[in-house]
């Protein structure tokens, strides 16, 4: 049972309408771009809540970068206004098969790139919610959806989760199917999840990627990586992170400083791969519908078309080497902890913020989890990011839950 | 100017109708599943042939796995009959921008998997043309198109090229954009080309992936890899390949036997990745439209859904290690040469043949080129496959052209 989600004796119909009506009444932040009028066609088959299907009755907010056969899908772009795909994205179909339903489609930046959405941060509407998965982060933060789907190519799950104060999860590259999402940079594009707690994220992820129920004996040792971009973090974020580490130590965890300067190289190469592939993958949109694409993105694609293929090739090989080197490091720690963003959500809506704390990890293809445990100078949330080795998702959940407990315990004491 | 393609003083309109009429009159092998009635909407902009656009006037046959906004796209599946995408695949848009036009859509096995197409081998209609890019290989072999687009996930470009007696080219993984193709196993899916000569393939590839005009000084040394699956090749194919090697030596090339038993591991892990990802990526089709999917594929997807994610994760890491090890090997050779298929096209149309000579290379993400230089017991073609290191496409073209010249010279002497 997902935290905060109760069947309350409701029928599937009551459950569906209750969730939809809550969105209609409560979406003051522009989380959703489409909420259906009626239950889905297979609604009669939804069966009793909490029956044999592990996600029965679960409302999921879906970033409008995922195809949905029964709802419009515009990828955040005026050039796809009213577009209706013929199939669900694979993961949408999987969630439906597990008993969940699509609560609605959430705001994404255009093609998951940089031009901002019109949505706002639910903690302070004068601040950005982040991007590109803005609407999904907001939907969970505002209590409209217990779970939401997003994608991360640079920092588009972890950053908005940090800004909006929810748990964000980016599994290892390739772990959740990307069939039916609009490709941006397909060496990086990764499907991720938003929820209110590690337990909720884990429940949904385990339903999607069933694995053996392993016990993950933790050592209680964490590596604290300020990282090569620590100097770009806001002072209040640095202070909050140091204080979070102190609280973890006070709770009995061993937290040791670690260093990995090559993360900067991963981040640089990530950017290069992103820019090159974006120019390739969005070409048909740019060529045939460019007049409907945001001018800044249109220029970005035109610039990307000038980048030399050799640089992309070198970056791809360089990243493969970095992935291998990272695999051999930090093996004595349960996870690496670091800032999820350079600070609280920036004021203003003209930028979705800085992905520098995420891009390197995305390109390393490692799982990342952010916990809303820190706060910035205005009281806005900042995430503590946990990073594990590739395919160590279950270990990451165990560490995440441990940290949640530790910090809650300290908070209460 | 592509070999065999001449403007002959034709206007763009004459050129377009001539190519279309040739297909209508000549497609006796089931290469095409759709040929348009009228020129494309942007036809007026096509401009004079052989003008500033490097592929001006070039007809390209496009595997029906690529989206085309002005033609139906069914991905070889009855479940998508009449489907019309809203955008071109990125590479289709790129070809059009370079001046080429889409001659028509070619037959693909369902979702680029194993149930055969109804098309036949142009050298003998009682033999398979191979798969999955059957129609594209046939279109070039039958002289209906100078160039065709295909995709390879296991062996779907190199194998049908070998069976149909044309040049087949699979560049490094990720080199040509996959945006707008139906994903099968996206850790493997690679866009490739068919043409009548190495020069033609190179011309189109260089237009798509512009790079510096490097001179590739060749050493004239080749590594001959019989490989771990030599024993699965037909005897006549073994004899043809040994004889091809002897002809290369007679032409003055140094061809040395090389061994790499780990190719078998790459092949095994490729299969594992393929099967797992197929079950994930085709889930929406299987769940919602399974009744229209070939029963054998339907069962294959159902089986794939039972495969443990851990095995996929191990295979992904194992392949990354193998890729790195391969990068350090065979550096003194211009290319590795090996059989492109286990033999000539098998008799019968119930199977598209064996991809064992291709899957390992696909999973290693290295560029492969097959040349129609060998023949089997019935006189049907067999390809000699050249393999280079990742992103060494241009070197591969240079070696391929050298081998073409060597064997032509010997053949004429």
Q: Which helices and strands occur, and which strands form pairs?
A:
Two copies of one chain form a homodimer.
Chain A: H1 12-26, E1 32-34, E2 59-63, H2 90-97, E3 101-106, H3 134-141, E4 147-152, H4 158-164, E5 167-170, E6 190-195, H5 198-208, E7 221-225, H6 235-250, E8 254-258, H7 263-281, H8 283-289, H9 295-304, H10 309-327, E9 335-339, H11 359-364, E10 368-375, E11 381-387, H12 393-412
Parallel strand pairs in A: 2-3, 2-4, 7-8, 7-9
Antiparallel strand pairs in A: 1-3, 4-6, 5-6, 5-10, 9-11, 10-11
Keywords (chains A, B): Hydrolase
InterPro entries (chains A, B): Amidase (IPR000120), Amidase_dom (IPR023631), AS_sf (IPR036928)
Pfam families (chains A, B): Amidase
Describe the structure using short key phrases.
413 residues; hydrolase (chains A, B); amidase activity (chains A, B); homodimer; eleven-stranded mixed sheet
Task: Tell me what the structure shows.
The structure is a homodimer of 413-residue chains. The first copy, chain A, has a domain at 12-208: Amidase signature (AS) enzymes (Alpha-Beta Complex), CATH 3.90.1300.10. The first copy, chain A, is α/β, with parallel strands linked by helices and 413 residues long. Chain A has helices at 12-26, 90-97, 134-141, 158-164, 198-208, 235-250, 263-281, 283-289, 295-304, 309-327, 359-364, 393-412, and strands spanning 32-34, 59-63, 101-106, 147-152, 167-170, 190-195, 221-225, 254-258, 335-339, 368-375, 381-387. In chain A, helix 6 (235-250) links the parallel strand 7 (221-225) and strand 8. The first copy, chain A, has 12 helices and 11 strands. The longest helix of chain A is centred in the last third of the chain and has 20 residues, at 393-412. In chain A, helix 5 packs antiparallel against helix 12 (393-412) and helix 6 crosses helix 12 (393-412). The first copy, chain A, is globular and about 55 Å long. An 11-stranded mixed β-sheet of chain A has the order 1-3-2-4-6-5-10-11-9-7-8, with helices on both faces. The interface between A and B is large, with 50 and 50 residues.
């Amino acid at each position: 049972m997902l935290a905060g989600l109760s069947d309350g004796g409701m029928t599937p119909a009551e459950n569906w309408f209750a969730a939809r009506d809550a969105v209609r009444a409560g979406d003051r932040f522009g989380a959703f771009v489409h909420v259906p009028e009626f239950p889905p066609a297979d609604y009669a088959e939804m069966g009793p809540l909490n029956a044999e299907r592990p996600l029965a009755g679960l409302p999921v907010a879906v970033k409008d970068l995922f195809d949905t056969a029964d709802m419009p899908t515009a990828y955040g772009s005026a050039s796809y206004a009213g577009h209706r795909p013929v199939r669900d994205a694979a993961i949408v179909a999987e969630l439906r098969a597990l008993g969940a339903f699509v609560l609605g489609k959430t705001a994404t930046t255009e093609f998951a790139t940089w031009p901002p959405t019109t949505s706002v941060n639910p903690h302070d509407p004068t601040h950005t919610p982040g991007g590109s998965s803005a609407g999904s982060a907001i939907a969970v933060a505002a209590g409209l959806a217990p779970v939401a789907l997003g994608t991360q190519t640079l920092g588009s799950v972890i950053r908005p989760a940090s800004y909006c104060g929810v748990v964000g999860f980016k599994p290892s590259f390739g772990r959740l199917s990307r069939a039916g999402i609009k490709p941006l940079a397909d060496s990086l594009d990764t499907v991720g999840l938003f929820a209110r707690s590690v337990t909720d994220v884990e429940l949904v992820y385990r339903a999607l990627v069933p694995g053996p129920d392993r016990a993950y004996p933790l050592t209680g040792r964490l590596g604290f990586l300020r990282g090569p971009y620590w100097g770009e973090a806001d002072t209040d974020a640095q202070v909050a992170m140091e204080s979070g580490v102190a609280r973890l130590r006070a709770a009995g965890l061993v937290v040791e400083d670690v260093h990995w300067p090559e993360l900067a190289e991963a981040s640089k190469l990530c950017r290069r791969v992103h820019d090159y592939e974006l120019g390739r993958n969005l070409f048909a949109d740019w060529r045939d519908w460019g007049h409907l694409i945001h001018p800044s993105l249109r220029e970005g694609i035109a610039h990307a078309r000038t980048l030399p293929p050799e640089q992309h090739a070198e970056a791809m090989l360089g990243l493969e080497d970095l992935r291998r080197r990272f695999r051999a490091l930090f093996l004595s720690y349960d996870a690496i902890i670091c800032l999820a963003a350079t600070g609280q959500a920036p004021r203003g809506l003209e930028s979705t913020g800085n992905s520098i704390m995420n891009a390197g990890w995305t390109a390393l293809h490692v799982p990342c989890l952010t916990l809303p445990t820190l706060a910035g100078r205005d009281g806005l949330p900042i995430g503590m990011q946990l990073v594990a080795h590739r395919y160590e998702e279950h270990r990451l959940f165990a560490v995440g839950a441990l940290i949640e407990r530790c910090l809650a315990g300290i908070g209460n004491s």
